[in-house]
Amino acid sequence: MSTPILEARGITRRFGGVVAVNDVNLVVGKGQIVGLIGPNGSGKSTMVNLVTGELNPDEGQFLFEGQDITGLPTYRRARAGMARSFQLLRLFTSLSVEDNLLLAHHMRMKTGIVDSILGRASGLAEEQAARRRARELLAWFDLEAFADKPASELSIGQQRMVELARGMMSEPTLFVLDEPAAGLSPPNVDKLILLIRRLRDEFGMSILLVEHVMRVVRDLCDHVVVLDSGVKIAEGKPDAVVKDPVVVEAYIGSGWKRRAQG
Ligand SMILES: Nc1ncnc2c1ncn2[C@@H]1O[C@H](COP(=O)(O)OP(=O)(O)OP(=O)(O)O)[C@@H](O)[C@H]1O
Questions:
Q1: What is the rounded distance in angstroms from the CA atom of residue 98 to the CA atom of residue 166?
Q2: What is the domain partition of the chain in residue ranges?
Q3: What predicted TM-score, i.e. pTM, was given to this entire model?
Q4: Is 261 buried (19+), middle (13-18) or exposed (0-12) by CB count in 10 A?
Q5: pLDDT in tens, 167-196
Q6: Residue among 218, 223, 158, 208 nearest 187 (CA)
Q7: Where's the ABC transporter domain (predicted)?
Q8: Cα 20 to middle of ligand 1, angstroms
């Protein structure tokens, strides 16, 4: 197997007396879609924040394309090729859709904006390239018609697409998606599934996906990792994992059946 895009080795993170993530190993291979699931409070969001550098682990190591990135700040991970989407949308609702893409690009990469304000040639060239990329992505996501509209005028489903397009601005090789189906209607969930698959197939993207909607996990994931109380309790193919008695037991009482039908 080629070097995985992401490898988490023995990751532990505590909050006071709570061990939110406990000695977790996780591998995302190149071009793979790996699901991270588990009942509420099992440590998924903490793990995502550890992967992207919003949090640092107390123990363990992260490798990105074989390089140790443990302790690197978020923007350095973005430069290395990592992007994320947020469970609660973080769009600038008064800005246009296109400006959301451009601004996020500058903020994530910590580059360009000073140059462009000062009118430096390198900055201007980058600004033009970013604008071109934004337009291409808006077309790819079928959002061209909304480019100049304030994000607030879009439906939640459309805003989720903007969030994904925004993540793509930095040309990531690993996209970490935090509950992309949250709040979407069933037809929009179908669209999302197709779109995430296309992201992988057309851009060769690797994806780490946290998701409660089991249909999304079953349809998309090559491999699933299950957390419970911070511990990895199972992993494998989605169909086998959701039937694993240990996993079913962990979900009982936390609305698993309702979600599995979602
Ligand atoms: N900043 C924090 N301070 C203290 N405890 C925290 C913090 N963040 C998470 N925790 C605790 O860590 C554990 C894991 O929480 P986390 O949010 O990672 O779970 P989750 O699987 O993402 O849950 P959900 O599915 O509800 O989003 C929980 O017990 C939570 O209360």
A1: 9
A2: 1-81+172-261, 90-170
A3: 0.88
A4: exposed
A5: 999 889 999 999 999 888 899 999 999 999
A6: 158
A7: 6-254
A8: 6
